[in-house]
Specification:
The protein is of the alpha/beta class. Helix content is about 50%, strand content about 15%. Among the domains are: about 250 residues, Rossmann fold, CATH 3.40.50.620; about 50 residues, no CATH class. It has a 4-stranded parallel sheet with strand order 4-3-9-10, with helices on both faces. A 4-stranded antiparallel sheet has the order 5-6-7-8. The protein has a 3-stranded mixed sheet with strand order 12-11-13, covered by helices on one side. The structure holds adenosine monophosphate and zinc ion.
Length: about 475
């Protein structure tokens, strides 16, 4: 598998530190609000990378944190008249609801900054001891000049980064590019005891501490959105490598922006849709499909049209799956034929195309194209009224690939709808047998209002969702 590595600015063959094992870390949400569809893209790509590594046979340890103490959380708490901890708890729960809706699997480790405080404080202490950080009046700053590799991820010399750095009023930094590791406590804000007085950690140090504590000094892959390359990831490298004397992460994988009207979707620009509100209109699975329809490093533009098209594409996939299921359960022919076996062997070419797309820096766009080619071939085979066994094997072939992308997951859970539909279909059959056609039409109409279309076939009644 080849991955584009931001650190070397090249696509490289992925070679894990330990054979068969991958340690990866993704920067998680700051939990002060619902996450928007742009954030969803970054979390989703972490999930896809993890799923594909597992599909490729690796045992993956994947940590993604919750930033549960930060200015935005404190401000939100003040606005709502609740504690920062209550804000964080609320939005961690909302994050989990949306992540589950999007079929993003929970990371193997989900650490929280506030639960990693001893490790954060220990790491800051180590950086001071090694001469990479300094204390001024209860604040601790990282000294970027103390670390020779500063700028290697963003590919810029320190002087250029210093010029671009923001200096805020009251800053006690030696250089504009120095950044806070520990901030002295303000009144009415949560704080923790430390050797430098009560305070709370900066954002960058928490990721270094959590990543190192839960995964070790050197990990295989670190990921996040491209806006995190500088300063966040540059600072994570500076902190972790200065403390450990070892490489922090072998590969750096960054997701491109989700745009809207060709501008980065972001909370500060107020041009965002939360995942929750978009899901209410289009469904979670349409969002997942839409975000996977482009390569993760390319920008992708949010629009009503793209989400509608994603739903139409999903309908096509579900319709093939429904037809295969119907064949598996109801086909007249039982027992697979040699010709069907040959067809199934021929379908391996689509898996090969899928794998080679995903092996090429997770090209989900081409991987989805391979799935559609597979469904075309399955549809052709279905036209010949294949056996039940072919239906079952066809479902396996389709699901093998859609599962890697985490697609076709919603209707599986639609048991409630299925039960209602089955009951109504049975009542309609009874009405038809009793020649009560008015009643049978009423039931068909009722199903239509539920978004269910009936098709009378020689093998019985088939239904599908529109
Ligand atoms: P935040 O909660 O703001 O720290 O962001 C969480 C994740 O979302 C980070 O990995 C960001 O890089 C990513 N992100 C934020 N905005 C976008 C966007 N418009 N497109 C893609 N990723 C984004
Ligand atoms: Zn981070």
């Amino acid at each position: 598998m080849r991955l584009y590595n931001t650190l070397t600015r090249k696509k490289e063959e992925f070679i894990p530190i330990e054979p068969g094992k991958v340690k990866m870390y993704g920067c998680g949400p700051t939990v002060y609000n619902f996450f928007h569809v742009g954030n969803a893209r970054a979390f989703l790509i972490n999930d896809i990378l993890r799923r594909y590594l597992e599909f490729s046979g690796y045992d993956v340890a994947f940590a993604q944190n919750f930033t549960d103490i930060e200015d935005k959380i404190i401000n939100r708490a003040a606005e709502e008249g609740i504690s920062p901890n209550e804000v964080a708890e609320k939005y961690i729960a909302e994050y989990k609801t949306d992540a589950e809706g999007l079929n993003i699997r929970p990371p193997t480790i989900q650490p929280r900054a506030t639960e990693t405080m001893p490790q954060i404080i220990e790491l800051i202490g180590k950086l001071i001891d090694k001469g990479n950080a300094y204390e001024v009046d209860g604040d601790v700053y990282y000294d970027v000049h103390s670390f020779g590799g500063y700028g290697k991820l963003s590919g810029q010399p320190l002087e250029a980064l210093e010029e671009g750095a923001r200096v805020e009023i009251g800053d006690k930094k030696r250089s504009p590019a120095d950044f806070a590791l520990w901030k002295t406590a303000k009144s009415n804000e949560p704080s923790w005891e430390s050797p430098w007085g009560d305070g709370r950690p900066g954002w960058h140090i928490e990721c270094s501490a959590m990543c190192t504590h839960f995964l070790g000094k050197t990990i295989d892959i670190h990921c996040g959105g491209i806006d995190l390359i500088f300063p966040h990831h540059e600072n994570e490298i500076a902190q972790s490598e200065a403390a450990s004397g070892k490489d922090f992460s072998k590969y750096w994988v960054h997701t491109g922006f989700l745009t809207i009207d060709n501008q980065k979707m972001s909370k500060s620009k107020n041009n965002f849709f939360t995942t929750r509100e978009a899901a209410k209109v289009y469904g979670y699975e349409a969002i997942r499909f839409f975000l996977l329809s482009a390569h993760y490093r390319s920008p992708i533009n949010y629009s009503e049209d793209s989400l509608k098209q994603s739903n139409a594409a999903l309908d096509r996939l579900y319709s093939v799956l429904d037809n295969l299921t119907f064949t598996a359960e109801n086909a007249e022919t039982v027992g697979i034929t040699d010709a069907e076996r040959e067809t199934l062997t021929g379908l391996e070419q689509y898996k090969k195309a899928f794998v080679s797309a995903m092996d090429d820096d997770l090209n989900t766009a081409d991987a989805i194209a391979a799935i559609f080619d597979l469904t075309k071939a399955l549809n052709l085979a279905l036209a010949d009224n294949p056996s039940r066994e072919f239906g079952t094997a066809g479902i396996g072939k389709l699901r093998e690939l859609t599962d890697v992308l985490g697609l076709l997951y919603l209707r599986k859970n639609d048991k409630l709808l299925e039960n209602d539909v089955e009951i109504l279909i049975n009542s309609r059959e009874l009405a038809r047998k009793a020649k009560d056609f008015a009643q049978s039409d009423r039931i068909r109409e009722q199903l239509k209002n539920m978004g269910v279309i009936l098709e009378d076939t020689p093998l019985g009644v088939k239904w599908r969702k529109i």
